[in-house]
Amino acid sequence: MTEQAKVPSIRFAGFTDPWEQRKLGEVAPLQRGFDLPVNQMTPGPYPVVMSNGIGGWHSKYMVKGPGVVTGRSGTIGSLHYIEQNFWPHNTSLWVTSFNGNEPRFIYWLYASIGLERFGSGSGVPTLNRNDVHDLRVGFPCDVAEQRRIGTFFSRLDSLITLHQRKYDKLVVFKKSMLEKMFPKDGESVPEIRFAGFTDPWEQRKLGDVASSFDYGLNAAATEYDGQNKYLRITDIDDETHEFSKSDLTTPLADLAMSADYLLKESDLLFARTGASVGKTYLYRQFDGMVYFAGFLIRARIGEGADPEFAYQATLTDAYKKYVAITSQRSGQPGVNAQEYADYQLMLPSKTEQQQIGMTLRSLDDLITLHQRKLELLRNIKKSLLDKMFV
Length: 390
Prior knowledge:
By secondary structure, the chain is α+β, with helices and mostly antiparallel strands. It folds into 3 domains: 120 residues, Alpha-Beta Complex (Adenine-n6-DNA-methyltransferase TaqI, Chain A, domain 2), CATH 3.90.220.20; 101 residues, Helix Hairpins (Orthogonal Bundle); 146 residues, Adenine-n6-DNA-methyltransferase TaqI, Chain A, domain 2, CATH 3.90.220.20. The chain has 9 helices and 21 strands. The strands form 8 sheets. It has a 4-stranded antiparallel beta sheet, with helices on one face. Strands 13-20-17-18 form a 4-stranded antiparallel beta sheet. Strands 4-3-7 form a 3-stranded mixed beta sheet, with no helix packed on it. A hairpin with a 2-residue loop joins strand 3 and strand 4. The protein starts with 19 loop residues before the first strand and ends with a helix.
């Protein structure tokens, strides 16, 4: 909708009155928090809200809840909705009066504005309260409509929090499984093992189970041609280790002469230099035709080992420790092909490798699913904050 219409582009059914243009200072003014050194806070019944969150409890200077609090300096623009009575520290600003309006609506109204743009100062940014108060916003006079909007976004936020917790728990669980399904230093069997497997694991060099180690294609990236993908270190997601396809490119090279750099099943890539040294990626057919770039090293895992198991082994603390020690250089950190080939890992039978690799991959897929749900919900929330306020 246009601004002249003074209504949002998305609205709950049954509400038709136009929204008024009001100054924020008129409907929800901000008041500065109380001055008190942190070391003088004493235990009490009221949470102390600071610019970066809730930092303690105090027994004085109570402000009656509910309240909307935002940072005054440093961490500006972060918002907290406080249901109970609270104590605002001097680094914070809070809404002093809702003037009969719905508190949760006021919270989401502020969230839709993006208060960080009102920061000023060359050093530590400070929120300019006067500029915030002078901002004219669309405002529904019907408290029932305010309540519907406030409740809707609060429930959406709760759903996001729920998925975030599930995601965090899965990440912790996966880390625990990596620790328990691979032997600890000096041991030949893991803490957790599938039934039927009893033989001790053997220590082998990565170079013993890979048929080759190759450096990538030294070519610039150009516009994606719709088929031939170019994988660079920055295209490997730091968390999931998957090929991020948000910015696809094609190598600027004679591809007919570059077939040696085309990835195949069982290819395991290693970042060889810079801050991402040690980061790994296992090629999968659904990623399509992928050429790998020069700052990556390809290990082609042989028939005697399971590629998924070898990849999961690069997510363990033992591998990370090896990279941290081996990558030390006078300039940028780096690990070359021979050093990756020399990495020693513990190997069970290939059948047991496959069981472990499949199990850990299933966990990774579940983690990725929750991560994508989180991203989708956050994008929906961002879009709706733009469309349900004017």
